[in-house]
Amino acid sequence: MLAKFLHDKFSLGLCFVAPLVLWGLIAAIFYKEIPTRLNVGVVDLDHSHLSQEIVTALNASSYLNLKHFYSGLDQAKPFLANKEIYGVVVLPKNLERQIKLGIKTPVALYYNAEFVLVGKSIANALLQTLLTLGIKNDVARNLATHSDLNTAKALAFPLHVNLHRLYNEDNNYAQFLSSVILPCMWQIIVALGMLNFLMQCSSLSDILGALGLNTAIFSFWGFLMVFFLKPYDAHLGVFLLAVILLVLCVSSVVIALHALLSDPLRTASVIAAYTAPSLAFVGVTYPTPNMPVLGEFWGSLLPITYFIKSFIALLHYQEGVPLALASLSKMWFFLLFLPLGLLVHALRKKTC
């Protein structure tokens, strides 16, 4: 099996080039880690000192880049539709006058909701900026009647909110997404690699040899993926167990499917339908308990679901090891597909 593998350029490319290309693609997409300097337009209908102060404060935010200024919302709409800007802030007419009169005046934000993360970042930056400016104005107004600065601050902002981000303190979307996307892509390559090896097998010993070779190669890539996503060595043994177990489980399922379907094209189609939706059903981008029954059921059929749960438990929870081992214990079920596949293959050999 090893000799066949070394002389097969497609197998070498699938096992060694494809993982590097996919890793490079993910690293290139998420290298910035957090969204910064997002292009935003401004429609200033007031042209007052307050509106200029708001524009300056917005542009000072690390999230925003006030790229264009428009005379009206109609002028800004084509730029928003063409994705040259992600949002438009509209400062209404008589904004400063109404604020001084104590009339609440909304500052409108129109943003492209197709980009969920970008839209959330822009909305949060605008809200934070306006709250800061509002408090500054209230403090200045209170100082006119109260000479003490602390009293003026307390009257302007009597409730102090202390927010604590858990598990992703820096709002790093690369940490959030790459720790899900990379394992899901890795699972697909593991399955394709195993199928490619099976197409060169003619006996049970060949299948077992292919299983060992596929496990060795893609466990190696799994170890590198873990080191890339988690650069410290806490609970390293559990991580390595999870990697090897995932490769064995996926390979076992592929062996069973190949034995049952006995057609590489149909097997590849079933593998694609089985593994491709992994990102949607692993329960990270969308909570599993809130999914429909079918989505929750499909997620339970994917080995990568339990791998990612154990990965997250080890990364973020104090009692991570028991939680991780509990998730990994549910993966042993997938290993039952290995004897099933070998049995079906042996029966087919006898009937031929």
Overall pLDDT, averaged? 85
Topology as H/E string?
A: HHEHEHEHEHHHHHHHHHHH
Number of domains: 2
Number of strands: 4
What are the low-pLDDT stretches, counting only 5+ consecutive residues below 50? none
**Biggest pleated-sheet summary:** 4 strands, mixed
Shape: elongated
User: How far apart, in Å, are the first and last alpha carbons?
Assistant: 23 Å
Which sequence of strands runs across the widest sheet?
Answer: 2-1-3-4
Structural class: alpha/beta
Strand content: 5-15%
Radius of gyration (CA) equals 28 Å
The total count of helices amounts to 16
Helix-residue proportion:
55-70%
What features would you describe in this structure?
One of its GO terms (cellular component) is plasma membrane. This protein has 352 residues and is an alpha/beta fold. It folds into two domains: 2-30 and 173-351, no CATH class; 38-156, abc type-2 transporter like domain (abc type-2 transporter like fold). Helices cover 65% and strands 7% of the residues. The chain contains 16 helices and four strands. A four-stranded mixed sheet has the order 2-1-3-4, sandwiched between helices. Helix 10 (236-261) runs antiparallel to helix 14 (303-316).
